[in-house]
Amino acid sequence: MGIYIGGTGSANHLDDYEEGDFTWTMDDLTNSPTIWNNTGKYEKYGRLVHVQGHIQIGGTKPTFSTITGTFKVSGLPFAHTNGVGYSSALGKVRWSQLEWVGPSQSSYGHNDDTQLSCGIQNQTKIVFSTCGQGVYYVGDLLKRAVHNAHAWNLEWDIWYRIAS
Q: Which pTM was predicted?
């Protein structure tokens, strides 16, 4: 399927356009939490992919066998262009009721933490990082921030590049 940008002539035709839905999964769960919203939408424009994700938890909360590891979400519709390691993605994250502030909840918790951002790890995993004004660091959101916590909501909207 293709789309026309700025006119209907062949020079304006983008022949590599795709859109669709997909389902996210939280990595390393030891139970089946109650997920009220688990939606993903994507648009692919050539090598550029736009992804929107939403997870809302209520009822049975997620549990992990090891809660000190990094919280990750799988399910990207296309692998990121970089092979291994951490790659940035441009976008925003919104959250509510995550227990990620404080040393017992995140890797570098501090009461000035005001930001949650996301990136891509090992081509297909979404990871979230905390950041704040009071301390100069960026720390990973750990599983214990969502492990058996009260109901919470996490939404993200990112752009990234793929190999082809």
A: 0.76
